[in-house]
Amino acid sequence: MSLAQLHCTSAVPGADGSPVPGGPGFRFTALTPGVPESLLKEAEQLLGYEPPPGAPLRATAAELTSFPQSLSHSVLSDGSRLLARAVYAGADFTGVWGTFHAHAVRLPADAALSAGAPPISTWDSPQWVTGTPDGGTLPPLDRPPLSRGFDRRELESFAASRAPWLARFFAAVRGLAEEESAPRLVLVERNSADVARWIALACAVLPGASAHRLTFTTYTRRPQRAGQQIIGVLPDDARELTGLDHRYRVIDCTASRPTGAAGPGTSAGPGTSAGPGTSAGPGTSAGPGASAVDAWAETAAQIWLGRAPELFAEAATLPGAYFAPGPLAVVALCTGIAPGANGRTAAATWAYEHANALDAQRLEQLAEALTAPTADRGSAETAALARLFAVLGDRAPARTTAPLAALVLTEAVRNPAAGLELPALHIVSLPEDLKRRLADQLAPELRAGIADGAGPDLATSTAPASTASQAGTSRAAELLRVAELLGVDCADLLPGLARRLSRALIADPVSAYTSVVRTALEEYFDLRTTLLSELDALAADDPSAAARLFGRIDLPLTEVQAIPHLRMCAEVAGSAGPAVAAPENGDRLAVLRSVQRACGVSPFAEPLVLRTAVRLVWAEGAPTPGEARLMLAETGSDAHRTAGTWHTLVRAALEGPGDSPDSPGLAHDLLRGFREELEPRVRSALQLLEYAGELTAGRAAPGWTDRALALRAAAEPVEPGVLDQVFGALCRQLLSEQRPEGELYALVHSGDAELTAAYRRAAHDEPVRERLRTVPAFAAHCFTTWTALPGANKTWDETRAALLDKVLRPAVRALPAADVAAVERCLEGTGDRKAEEFRTWNRPGALGRLGIRFGTRTRP
């Protein structure tokens, strides 16, 4: 190996050799032959020295030794490196003060120092000289400068003296190693030797290659001109970095202790901000790569404070990335060093992910260290311990898992806000004495959690009430499993838990039916039967909600339990569901019968099942009048009366369509079966429907119009279908040839607009038109009726005129001559000149219409 050397100074020519190319006040005084000009120009920018501010103008020999030394390691443009030391030299041969001397060695990119030591180990190496060798010509070096390094105890003591800044320093160093764009690290110290010690600490925690590539300078007056990764400055020179937080991370060790910094043997704690530097120093932004004091940096600091730097090499042998905090925290814990809450969390997480990487002894040491009493254990750490216990529960001996089980179980029970899964499955394998101890300690919390399903922390939750309820019942079911395994008696709490769980399942089946709840129901028969009884009661109140429950979750029902309402809901959620949802696709009465069979209880023995069945099939709607009449016939009035479903039957009658043939019969049955229960208005409305049936069947006594109008007045407000039904039946009878004497008079002189309109609509019906075209006697009857009582009132005059013009005239005009003659013969039999009036009316032109308009009054 042939390494080029360079010596340079700021002394005037003649002081220690002939001048060579260089800038003003700068010249190379000795070079290894063959050094290219390009290297000299690049080195000129890297080599230099300015004495500190306030330095004595004429320093004595003793004072010269106190001046800062600048040991620098820089990367050149060709990939090689320049390792150099610059010192203040005092006065030159002319007596001019302020000169310096720099000695540099060019290292190939892959060259290593003796014993693989990093470049910082050449601090105070005897091969660095403070003056130019005689002759100015230097032979090539066959090896890099010898490294003296730093004594381990010296670095350990130095680390202890800088404890407040250690974690932040290591976080910044990690950023330099991981990100090329990371901010440069500026170390503010009064002594450049302390900067060198900082750099030695950095190299001790970095991988070998990163330590060799780390660039630095232990002293400069111009930090913004320094291109190295770590820059050492005096306090006065750090001020120029103010406002450059995005480029520099400043750690000022000459200022007061930083807020929140960790002292010896302590941790910054979870969530501690990693703002670099201190409140007194400039450039305090952490910048990229060092936004927080991470677990790795905290642990690295604690390892140095624990005087065990050999653990870095040991951690490197474990699985995981070099800067992963887990391996480092694991070896620290196993050695008795406390890495803080972040480190413990990282160790537990790493052990969970690499459970097979540690032998039994190391695993036991780790478990013991992780579960040692501490005041700063947070929810993240507890969750990591819970995961570790879950993975170790089946593979590690009880002496290893018992401490973890006790800690995780206690935290999970006492701190519900942590959201830990209770490790019920592995509790079975715990020693009996530990189970008894845990039962004694946790019984109050277990019972309280099962009783209220939440706990003190969930009581103030901002989650929606339904969400909090579901979380609470799931946790209560979890606590019940733990209590059962620990032997804590909670039988008296089952009814309350079942009640809350039933409501949560009805509100949101999918969210409430968690795996924990399913397991608890499978394992505890008493809880399952109590829950199903509660659900049965809720199903009786809201069967649709219970049916939705079975449509969304698979909740098994017991074979021996009498839960009729719940069984009907399960039936509807199965094959019967589509028929209920789409009545046109199925027979709803068949569905009703199927649902009733599924409940296993007769509606005569327990009428309330009838109510549930009806609400399941028709929900908030009503059956058709035909369906309702069959239901009443099959079940009888007593069951419907007790179940309250007679209201649904009444709705079916009153809300049915106006042309339903079953409505009058249903009304008759309801009046007979529920006369005492019907209020007056409803009774009158049903009587209207019943009367419509009597009219249609021809059983109604004369006085139709007066009877219908009287019933309507008592039933106001009358449902549209009811009115259509009775007025339709009445008007069809009024249009018939068998109409009793006086009925038309009653219609006309009632002046009832609705009834008259119904009469007009009935006359327009196709059956009426068809009879007019085919039965001459009916045509004669209609002519007689519609020409009767002219001038009785405006409504009747408008109605009869419209019927003559729009209904009768088109029908008569379409009749053959023989049928027209038959109509005339029928009218001649009345003896009231109706035949002559008909001929006049039927004559083409306006005269016929005028004749009818001003016709004589005819007896109806």
- The largest sheet has its strands arranged as 2-1-5-4-3-7-8-6-9
Strand content: 5-15%
Which structural class do the helices and strands define?
Answer: alpha/beta
Inertia-based shape: elongated
Total count of helical runs of at least 4 residues: 40
Number of domains: 5
Secondary-structure topology with pairs:
Elements: E1 5-9, E2 27-31, H1 37-46, H2 61-64, E3 70-75, E4 81-91, E5 97-107, H3 152-161, H4 163-178, E6 184-188, H5 192-205, H6 208-213, E7 216-217, E8 230-233, E9 248-252, H7 295-305, H8 311-316, H9 325-335, H10 340-353, H11 360-370, H12 379-392, H13 398-414, H14 424-427, H15 432-452, H16 465-486, H17 494-507, H18 509-512, H19 515-523, H20 525-541, H21 543-552, H22 564-572, H23 577-581, H24 588-599, H25 608-618, H26 625-635, H27 637-643, H28 646-654, H29 663-673, H30 680-697, H31 704-715, H32 720-735, H33 743-750, H34 753-763, H35 766-774, H36 776-786, H37 794-813, H38 817-828, H39 834-842, H40 846-853
Parallel strand pairs: 6-8, 6-9, 7-8
Antiparallel strand pairs: 1-2, 1-5, 3-4, 3-7, 4-5
Can you tag this structure with a few keywords?
alpha/beta, Rossmann fold, 860 residues, elongated, 9-stranded mixed sheet, disordered C terminus
